[in-house]
Design a protein that fits this description.
This protein has 458 residues and is mostly helical. It has one domain: Amino acid/polyamine transporter I, CATH 1.20.1740. 76% of the residues lie in helices and 0% in strands. The protein is built from 18 helices and no strands. Helix 3 packs across helix 4 and helix 3 packs antiparallel against helix 12. The N terminus is likely disordered. Bound molecules: tryptophan. The site of tryptophan has 17 residues, from helix 1, helix 2, helix 5, helix 10 and helix 14.
């Protein structure tokens, strides 16, 4: 198995996507999630807006793009979970199995991310429930803050929804990806886009739209610090699901004849569009209601209910919005869980159900720490803040870029030219060289410069 000749294809142990469309949907489903709608606005708000957004966009295109292509390539060539794929390919291309460590860093990042991701997804479930029970009506700035405060103060409420969200994620992964996932994504993504557009109309006509646009799109470079550049890069990795190996994993199920560059372009376009739309919806509302862009992880939960409140039939849209957001979070959560589960199936010979349950339970437990960060442990701070802050910082700003860097170095430098050419055989030599330049020089140098800058060396 490990001594495959170049160009001879290995097959995946867990089946393949049924079409190019499903792959695009699944990766888009992984990419679009809380990262776009919950995290992007609050991180942009915390880091001063426009200049941050500009750096974020640059990171997406010059770092994110080549890395996503590299990850899909590695997955499709390795056809295994990220750890095993890196081990097999490392042996084939360089005689070194140590590349498996890259997969391990990625998987541990996924573990940490899912533990708090599920807590926030739980918040959206709670807001869904409150919307349909009419508990979000007649809000003003203060009552919106009070409702959000009640949620974060209550470990029990958060625990219930965190448990529900993890249970759903584990149940879907246990059943295998095809049926549930593919169908869900097809319905939800357009639905989410539809409600965002309705909200955009609201923001344009009723919100302080120009203040929002100014904040989000007009760069004020005096607000940029080395930490915000790092945050922008971390957010680019997070939103594109890079560095963790989930794109490697999904690439492992991609049929050989599909275009990697073509699919990557579509995915990145959709993901960026949704994030910018979310920002254009949220900031006009922030300014109209006198909230602060720096309100942190609660930002969408403070702003959006206020807007829905003022739209006729708002509670219907509000309910729909939060449930669709929960769905978007589920498709992302699946991609965070799948690589570790596939690893366990392939290495421990457990069934899919058992593997999903074991790993799901561990992540669920770790999630308690994030829940407590908002209440009983809120005073317990070190390094970057609460436990939740530290988990997010460590995973997004350090682990994802480090393993993303190594994935792209592997695809750009270690993989033989004939193998990478073979994976990208559908595009012209010029496009291939462009990718290769990005993967060899631009993305690695970019990531390293941002790191050096963040630790104060340059
Ligand atoms: N990209 C998803 C979002 O924006 C979250 C996500 C899914 C993720 N898989 C990932 C983040 C892998 C980092 C790594 O919500």
């Amino acid at each position: 198995m490990n001594n495959l000749q170049a160009n001879q294809e290995r097959s995946s142990l867990h089946g393949q996507w049924s079409s190019r469309m499903t792959f695009i949907l699944a990766v888009t489903g992984s990419a679009i999630g809380l990262g776009n709608i919950w995290k992007f606005p609050y991180i942009a708000g915390d880091n001063g807006g426009g200049a941050f957004v500009l750096i974020y966009l640059i990171c997406i295109f010059i770092i994110g793009f080549p890395i996503m292509v590299s990850e899909i390539m590695i997955g499709r060539k390795g056809r295994r979970n990220p750890i095993t794929s890196m081990k097999i390919l490392g042996q084939e291309e360089q005689g070194k199995a140590n590349w498996k460590w890259v997969g391990m860093i990625g998987l541990s990042a996924g573990f940490i991310i899912l533990s708090y991701y599920s807590v926030i997804a739980g918040w959206t479930l709670h807001y869904f429930k409150m919307s349909i029970f009419g508990e979000l009506s007649n809000l003003d700035n203060e009552s919106a803050q009070a409702i959000f405060g009640q949620l974060t103060d209550s470990a029990v409420t958060q625990l219930i929804y965190h448990t529900a969200f993890m249970a759903i994620t584990v149940a879907i992964i246990a059943k295998g990806i095809k049926d549930g996932l593919e169908r869900a994504v097809k319905l939800m993504m357009p639905g989410l886009l539809f409600i965002l557009i309705i909200l955009l109309f609201y923001s344009v006509f009723q919100g302080d739209f120009m203040a929002g646009v100014n904040f989000l799109l007009v760069p004020d470079f005096s607000k940029i610090t080395s930490q915000s550049v790092l945050a922008a890069m971390g957010q680019a990795f997070f939103t594109l699901s890079l560095g963790m190996g989930c794109i490697v994993m999904y690439g492992a199920y991609l049929p050989k004849n599909e275009s990697i560059i073509g699919t990557t372009t579509t995915i990145i376009f959709c993901d960026t569009l949704i994030a910018l739309l979310a920002g254009l919806v949220i900031f006009p509302i922030v300014f109209q209601f006198g909230l602060k862009p720096t309100d942190g992880p609660g930002l969408i939960f403070l702003t959006l209910p206020l807007a829905f409140n003022e739209i006729t039939g708002g509670y219907v849209f509000s309910g729909l919005f939060f449930i669709l957001l929960a769905f978007a979070a589920i498709t992302s959560a699946l991609s965070l869980l799948e690589p570790s589960v596939a690893w366990m199936i392939e290495n421990k010979n457990y069934t899919r159900g058992k593997s999903a349950l074991i790993i799901g339970a561990l992540i669920w437990l770790l999630g308690f720490l994030s829940i407590f960060s908002f209440n009983i442990l809120s005073e317990f701070t070190f390094w970057k803040g609460t436990l939740f802050d530290n988990f997010d910082y460590l995973a997004s700003n350090i682990l994802l870029p480090v393993s993303g860097l190594l994935f792209t170095i592997f695809a750009g430098w270690i993989m033989k030219t004939e193998n990478s050419t073979d994976e990208l055989s559908d595009v012209s030599r010029y496009v291939y060289n462009l990718w290769r330049f990005g993967a060899r020089y631009i993305a690695p140098v970019g990531v390293i410069l941002v790191f050096l800058n963040a630790i104060g060396l340059i």
